[in-house]
Each structure stands twice: as structure tokens, then as C-alpha cells.
Sequence to fold (362 residues):
Amino acid sequence: MKNLILKEQHSIGSYRKQPFFISIGNLSFVNKTIAISAKNTRCRRPITVFSGIFILLVISLVSSCATKGVSFVQEQPNATLKIAQLRTQTDDLPVLRTVDLMTGMVYRTYYDAAVEEVTHTFISDMAAMYRELAHLVAADPGLVEWAAVAFIKDSAYVPPRHGREVRWSILIDNSGQLGSAGITDFYQILPHEQVHAVQGTFKPGLPRWFSEGMAEWAGLQVTQRRQPDLAERRRADLRHAYESINGPLDLSAWGGVTVKREAFLRQVTSEQRARIEVDSTYSPPGPFNFSPDDFISDESNTLARYGGSLALFEMLEAAAGHEKMRSWFRAVWQADGRLNTEALISLANEHTGIDLHPWFNR
Ligand SMILES: [Zn+2]
Fold:
């Protein structure tokens, strides 16, 4: 009888050596020997002794069924994370580098030495969350420059700056678990911020309503599956702020940078200033010099604008469905150059059939 032996080699428990690799996920599969024989395949056939030719035929059938068994076994999910301990930089926390062999995605996880064990338990949760986020926003997770995460016990922790690395902190409480602050960090803020990591990878500089609307919409779906109360509370807060706003929401102006009026006025003559007061269309000739303090970003009605942007994405999903939204997102990632509100509205119309203009007259 022909047996086929499959063996997965993992070196669990050696992660203090440097460098090292371990795989986590479906650990029941680790070092398990799977034997596939004619007895446990559905292709079992009665063997007769009448003919040597017939026996040869049975052996060949068994062999072909065993091959089918191999492909089934290899489809076991989750045994796909490869984790390496990287060399720690001076004055920084220890860091793990995770590669998801299923998607090619890579991310870094820092940790306080005191919370090393709990950090390992969250690494596969992060892989699952990131895969979901990437699917929701139609991005290839293997191409995203995911933000790093630090599991820390000190709420005043400030990550050192390493080049362009963005690092989010997850607070571990005194019992060594996620307390309520850590739960919000990990299940609500992290998914939201990782949507910004996707945007930063493929299309930086998107208008605020789009980047925050997408981050709330996709992030909260990931939150919802793990901490439904948290997601519902956030949705209720945003909906309340949006529905109770007095005055215009002006979504397209959100985050727009303008020069402070006084920075402009201090550089004109008294005659020009007098003319500006009576004629709003008058623009005195430059040049003008501005310092960084002279600029102001429109951050008014922030919570209501988060709420309005989320409502816009939720309306699109209800009216057009997720697949059409994904096709809109793909078009956004692939577009050339910077996209302003008008360009995003036009792509939305093309891919979802919905005109978003009314949302920008509120
Ligand atoms: Zn955001």
C-alpha cells in the first residue's frame, strides 16, 4: 500500500534566538503527519486477484486519489505567517517582522519586553484584520506599506522617528491584557489608521471627506466583527454629530488649507486694505511671503464631517453594493496624479452610477 507523508517543519519556541523564524496560525497542523492511503480515500475500489493488469490499474487509481488528498491538506488556512525577530535598534523596543505567505503582506510589531507573550497572540489577529481591510478597499495587501504597531504598557510612550515609519501604540493594562483603552486602540483606531496606510501607499493627498469616509466605513466593519458594541457606539456618535449640525457641512472644504486673513493684510498698503474692505473681488498684486504659521486648515465641525463622510459611504454601499464601490476604489488607486473632489465624484458616477454632487451642497 502506498502512503503519502506530509510534514510541516516549524521551529516553535526558539524565538529568542536571532534571527529566527516561526509560523503561527493553525498550530494543530504543525508537525502532524498525515497519511493518505487507499483506505481513507473515496476512490477505493475492489481489488480482484484475477489479473495482474487490474492490480496495476488499482495502484494507479490510489496514487491519483492520494494526489487529490495532498491538495486538500495544503488548503489548510492560516498556517501562513512567518515571523522574524529583527535586530533591535539602540533606544528602541524589540521588533518582530511578520510576513503573511498567503498575501505577501509584511508588517512590523514592536513590544515592551513585559508584554511579549500577549504581543504574539495579536499578530495573527492583525493579519486577519489587514486582509479584511484590503479586501474592503480593493487593495492588494502585499503591496501596502502597513503602519507599524507597538504593544506598550506606558500610556505616555512616544515612538522614536525612523525614517518614514508610522507607528501606532496599543496600550496593554497592568493585568497584561487589552484594557478598555487597548481594545479601542486595537479594534477601532488601528483598522481606521491602516486604511490611511493603504491610501498613503496608493494615492496620498486625497480630500479629507474621501480619506476619512473610507477609513471610518471600512475600519468600522472590521471593528464590528470583533467588538460590535464599540463599532455601534462610534457610529451612533458620528450619526448624532452629523444629524445635529447647525449650518453647512461643506464636506469638500474639510482640511482645505487657506492663508489667514491677517497674514495677507499685514503685507498690503493702507489704500489696498481700504479697497479690500469695500470690494471682495479685489486682489492686490503680490508677491506675498507667508510662514507656516500663516496657514490654517479648515477643521471646523470635525465630528459632523466624519459622520457625513461615513454616511456618504454607507449610502453608496446600500445603493450600489460593495462590488461597485470596490471598482470605484480600484479606479482611485490607479488614477494618474492627484484627485480632487470633482474627479472623485466623476469616478464614483462612472463606477457606481450614483451622483454624489448633492452631498457637497449641504
Ligand atoms: Zn482618519
About this structure: The two ends are 75 Å apart (CA to CA). Residues 1-77 have pLDDT under 50 and may be disordered. The pocket of zinc ion is lined by residues 192, 196, 212, 215 (CB under 6 Å). The CA atoms of residues 213 and 309 lie 4 Å apart.
